[in-house]
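Mods, move this if it's the wrong board.
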Amino acid sequence: MEENAQALLRRVLESPQPSAKYKSAVESSADSEIFQKLKDAYDACVDEPTVKERGTKPLDDILTQIEKIYPAGKSSGDATKGNLTAAVVYLMEIGVEALTSLRVSVREFQF
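Not the wrong board. Structure tokens:
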């Protein structure tokens, strides 16, 4: 179901916005504005030339910030634990679910 939902979302975001004759009477200009913002965000994520142009700089900036928060190679007990927490919080604030995830999902297990 998740794959189907992702595929449907991709088709919607890659399609043009419906013309006025296909819009329902209840659809507002706010809906159009939100739809356009979603499309713009999606287009930015799949804009390969811009991603290649930026290179690794965004990742380098994140790693530099993590190094400031949680310096590698230092282990001083409780201070290190606090710094690790701060590093995880920083990652969560910028949307990186590297070490933790706060979502719930269903997984199939085969025995």
